[in-house]
Structures are given as structure tokens and as C-alpha cells.
Backbone:
């Protein structure tokens, strides 16, 4: 598996989608999920470092963008609304992607993998629910 290849599971497909330059110049780590019979949507994740500045967890910041270039847009109309069931599938797919074996991009690349605590956090309002 290449670092940006789709991974397929029963509930859909998921992949790392690269890094986008945010409007404030901050890099945005992007992933994409495609549920069955739906188009791909994009989300943002970021490393959250512990006080030792070495170990980290992953936090999903937001999801539901139709275009990867919009992942730093905070206005609600840039994100699609999902059902609770679909949100659970998206959450599961992202966790499977992060924890799967294989080549991964920054910040989960092989040189940083030993410092990853294998903890994935989802912000309170990471996804819009109907």
C-alpha cells in the first residue's frame, strides 16, 4: 500500500489525502472517506504532542468538506451534514486507516511511528450530525 492509496473496508474506503496549505500558512493534514454510494469527503487531522514534545496522539479536527482545499474553512456551510450511523462509519474508517500497517505520510511516517501513542481523539464538533 502506498501512503495515499485507498484502503477498502466493509463500511467504505479511506485514505490519506496529503497536506494542504491553510489560509494562515499552517499545514493541514488531510484524509478522505468514501462511504458506499456517496462521493468522497475530506477532513483534517493533526498531531497533539504531550509535554515531552516527543510523544503524540492524533486528533481529528473536522470532516465533511467536498473539497480538500476547504479543510481550514470554519463556516458550517462548507461541511456536509451526516447521519449518526454514517458518522460512526467515518470514525471507524479513520481509526482503521491510522492503525493499519503500511507506509504512512507525516506525521505518522516510520520515523515518528514509535512516538505515536496509538490514541485517536475526535473533537467535540469534528463532524456535523443531522
Residues:
Amino acid at each position: 500500500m502506498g501512503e495515499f492509496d485507498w484502503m477498502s473496508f466493509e463500511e467504505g474506503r479511506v485514505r490519506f489525502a496529503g497536506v494542504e496549505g491553510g489560509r494562515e500558512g499552517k499545514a493541514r493534514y488531510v484524509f478522505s472517506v468514501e462511504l458506499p454510494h456517496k462521493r468522497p469527503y475530506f477532513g483534517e487531522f493533526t498531531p497533539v504532542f504531550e509535554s515531552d514534545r516527543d510523544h503524540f496522539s492524533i486528533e481529528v479536527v473536522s470532516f465533511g468538506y467536498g473539497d480538500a482545499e476547504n479543510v481550514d474553512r470554519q463556516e458550517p456551510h462548507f461541511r456536509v451534514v451526516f447521519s449518526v450511523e454514517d458518522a460512526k462509519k467515518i470514525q471507524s474508517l479513520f481509526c482503521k486507516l491510522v492503525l493499519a500497517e503500511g507506509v504512512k505520510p507525516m506525521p505518522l511516517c516510520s520515523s515518528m511511528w514509535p512516538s505515536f501513542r496509538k490514541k485517536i481523539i475526535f473533537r467535540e464538533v469534528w463532524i456535523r450530525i443531522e
Q: What stands out?
A: The chain has one domain: 7-129. Residues 7-129 form one domain. Strands lie at 7-9, 12-21, 27-34, 41-49, 56-65, 81-82, 116-122, 128-129. The chain has a mean pLDDT of 92.
